[in-house]
Automatic annotation (TrEMBL):
Region (Disordered) location: 470-493
Biased composition (Gly residues): 484-493
Domain Aldehyde dehydrogenase span(s) in chain numbering: 19-449
Organism listed in the record: Saccharomonospora piscinae
Name of protein: Phenylacetic acid degradation bifunctional protein PaaZ
Family listed: Belongs to the enoyl-CoA hydratase/isomerase family. Belongs to the aldehyde dehydrogenase family.
CDD domains noted in UniProt: ALDH_MaoC-N (cd07128)
Gene3D superfamilies: Aldehyde Dehydrogenase, Chain A, domain 1, Aldehyde Dehydrogenase, Chain A, domain 2, Hotdog Thioesterase
A Pfam entry, by short name: Aldedh
Top-level taxon in the UniProt lineage: Bacteria
MF GO annotations: oxidoreductase activity, acting on the aldehyde or oxo group of donors, NAD or NADP as acceptor
Keyword line: Oxidoreductase
Oxidoreductase as UniProt keyword: yes
Domain MaoC-like residues, every copy: 552-652
């Protein structure tokens, strides 16, 4: 038997607090390149109901005790740990048919997603276990009845059912937002490449970083897993549209309204603009991008370009340029340094691709490649799941097949279009896609395509000479942006920064008085009690509390103040300097103080000037000037600690203050948030 270093003969699962072997020998998983056995796989004998319960009873409570910042810090440590072991993951990836470049896409992409979510958790979320979402909404005129949305973690398990093509990125991109939300995960990888996900989870378990129950792994079939779901669990599926349809309709999923997110195959498009003729940067970018998307991971990417639309008059040029580039892509053993495209994941996948190609050939002819044969470097072309890149050309874009049949391999169909309207219609024929791209230097054309195609897409890239240098390319989902598309693409959404976190939480609208709403959310809201006494700028974070306040003033604003400010800053706008012109201003009816003068005077009122725990003022947010300030008006400012966020790993944190500047009549003349950095001690 061929032995792959580091992979046990039978893959154990990590469930209910330990590694468990199946009760039978399972079925073989084969090396995509050599056809030898890599491992055997089975989930027989595993108690999947108990595994889910372990996640709910052990993982969930442990995670919910951590604040968002603590979860973010753990993710960062985990990402660093995995980064140290990535060479091992790259090496194992070769058995899945992946080149080194493909492996980096998968492994580094996954680790990068952990880093991105770690940073989001620590920068965008409070150092708390709940998170208020959106603004405070006044629900009555008197300000005693308010509403706000609150996000709390679901008390279930985020179940992942994953595809074979991203055995590292797939589990990590789903795990990161669930973990930040405080929800434990159970991963069921696709059997074909489960040995790589197994090693990933082994590395995570070995790190000892995560609370027990936060991550479990089931190698083998899903068995009765879904039967044990409860209303607090979630399912996140990636794979074929057929399986998605079946699982979505599972009686337990339906009965409990289980949140079900699907990311399925889609007929992604890329369109070349009519301006991008041969010789332009955009023409070359289009050809590059199409060849990359066809050959990276041997085209086994859910976002790869399947439909390549080009202006009818450019189709011969594009065909020729793409064919020339594809001819220079050596296919073969991904471990060989010359090889640019490896194998498909399995011989079964190759059969599937060949079957799909048969259907596609009813609509188009092959203009590059041979679906049944390929010359390979350093490998046996029959034992390994090798497949030639195949470019088809369908001169009639109205034929159904290219819009319906996905060959999940290095296959794309070139099609002509004659107008932007036709292009937008053709885009919609895919019935919903994950990703699309437009390559053009014509911003009006780009706008027409983006607006026309957006309802059918989760993500759209417009590529031109300006952004090409920094562009992450057509096929790369990004942690901060939506991944997932409507209709055929599964109808789901993953990632998208904090949206992906919120997906694992319940949004509850809480209606209450200001005092109660402050207590519930941990954030001071207008109308809640304040505490005056020692100046809050004298208090380090260890003593500062939400609601601590200072009321300072009054300070009378004189004509001299306004004239001085105008002269000193150079802001001599007529409303501050020209009595007659200002009198005719319909809003002011006379000289008014500069808004920035009001803000500056307020700072002069609330400051506590001696050295102390306040280290810096790093900005203002939500500044509004609400009532004009005239010479003779006197100003009072109330500054209240609104949100306190200690920064993990630093000896200071952020304090957001509510600032309300009022006039002698008690009217607010300016409202804003002051952002400061304050020492934890001292
Ligand atoms: P599948 O939909 O068959 O499998 C995807 C995942 O679902 C695997 O983990 C699989 O497990 C699991 N699964 C299958 N049946 C069930 C079930 N009844 N209950 C619970 N889990 C189940 O897709 P494949 O991986 O076989 O790929 C087939 C096609 O899907 C490809 O040719 C391609 O067209 C598309 N695809 C799309 C991807 C995308 O990212 N959108 C990615 C990969 C494939 P197991 O492996 O153990 O059977």
């Amino acid at each position: 038997r061929f032995v792959v270093t580091g992979v046990p003969t039978v893959l154990p699962s990590y469930v209910s607090g330990g590694w468990r072997r199946p009760s039978d020998d399972g079925t073989p998983v084969r090396d995509a390149v050599t056809g030898h056995d890599v491992a055997r796989i089975s989930a027989s004998g595993l108690d999947l109901g108990a595994a889910l319960e372990h996640g709910r009873r052990t993982g969930g409570p442990a995670l919910r005790e951590l604040t968002f910042h603590q979860r973010g810090a753990l993710l960062k440590a985990l990402a660093s740990h995995l980064r140290e072991h990535r060479d091992e993951l790259y090496s194992l990836s070769a058995h899945t048919g992946a080149t080194r470049g493909d492996a980096k896409f998968d492994v580094d992409g996954g680790i990068g997603t952990l880093f991105a979510y770690s940073s989001l958790a620590r920068r965008e979320l409070p150092d708390d276990t709940v998170c208020a979402d959106g603004p405070v909404l006044p629900l009555g005129k008197g300000g005693t009845f308010l509403g706000r949305h609150l996000l709390t973690p679901l008390h279930g398990v985020a179940v992942q059912i994953n595809a074979f093509n991203f055995p590292v990125w797939g589990p990590l991109e789903k795990f990161a937002p669930a973990f930040v939300a405080g929800v434990p995960t159970l991963v069921k990888p696709a059997s074909q490449t489960a040995y790589l996900t197994h090693r990933l989870v082994e590395l995570i378990v070995e790190s000892g970083l995560l609370p027990e129950g936060a991550l479990q792994l089931v190698c083998g079939g899903a068995g009765d897993l879904l039967d044990h779901l409860t209303p607090q669990d979630l399912v996140s599926f990636t794979g074929s549209a057929d399986t998605a349809r079946r699982l979505r309709a599972h009686p337990t999923v339906v009965r409990h309204s289980v949140r079900f997110n699907a990311e399925a195959d889609s007929l992604n498009l890329s369109a070349l603009g009519p301006d991008a003729t041969p010789g332009t940067v955009e023409f070359d970018l289009y050809v590059d991008s199409l060849v990359t998307e066809m050959t990276v991971k041997a085209g086994q990417k859910c976002t790869a370009i399947r439909r390549a639309f080009v202006p009818a008059e450019l189709i011969d040029d594009v065909e020729q340029a793409v064919a020339e580039r594809l001819a220079a892509v050596p296919v073969g053993n991904p471990a060989h340094p010359d090889v640019r495209m490896g194998a498909l994941a399995s011989l079964e996948q190759r059969e599937e691709v060949r079957r799909s190609l048969k259907a596609l050939r009813d609509a188009g002819r092959v203009v590059f490649g041979d679906p049944d044969h390929v010359d390979v470097v350093d490998a046996d072309p029959e034992r390994g799941a090798f497949c030639s890149p195949v470019l088809l050309r369908a001169d009639d874009p109205d034929r159904a097949e290219p819009h319906e049949v996905e060959a999940f391999g290095p296959v794309s169909t070139l099609m002509p279009y004659r107008s932007v309207e036709q292009l937008v219609d053709l885009a919609a024929r895919g019935q919903g896609s994950l990703a699309g791209s437009v390559v053009t230097a014509d911003a009006d054309f780009a706008r027409a395509v983006v607006l026309g195609a957006a309802p059918w897409h989760g993500r759209l890239l417009v590529l031109d000479a300006d952004d090409a240098g920094e562009s992450t390319g057509h096929g790369s989902p990004l942690p901060h942006l939506v991944h997932g598309g409507p209709g055929r693409a599964g109808g789901g959404q993953e990632l998208a920064g904090l949206h992906g976190v919120a997906h694992h939480m319940q949004r509850t609208s809480v209606q209450a008085s200001p005092a109660v709403l402050s207590a519930v959310t941990g954030e001071w809201v207008a109308g809640a009690p304040r505490r005056e006494g020692e100046h809050p700028f004298r208090k380090p974070l260890s003593r500062l509390r939400v609601g601590d306040a200072v009321v300072a003033g009054p300070r009378t604003v004189t004509s001299e103040d306004i004239a001085h400010f105008a002269e000193f800053t150079g802001d001599t706008f007529y409303a501050h300097t020209d009595e007659q012109a200002a009198a005719e201003n319909p809003l002011f009816g006379g000289i008014v103080a500069h808004g920035y003068l009001v803000v500056s005077l307020a700072a002069g009122l609330f400051v506590s000037p001696e050295p102390g725990p306040v280290l810096a003022n790093y900005g203002l947010e939500n500044l509004r000037f609400l009532t004009p300030v005239k010479p003779g008006d006197s100003l009072t400012v109330t500054l209240t600690a609104k949100r306190i966020t200690p920064r993990t790993g630093a000896d200071y944190g952020e304090v957001r203050w509510d600032a309300d500047v009022t006039n002698a009549e008690g009217e607010s003349v300016a409202k804003y948030d002051v952002l400061t950095l304050v020492a934890k001690e001292g």
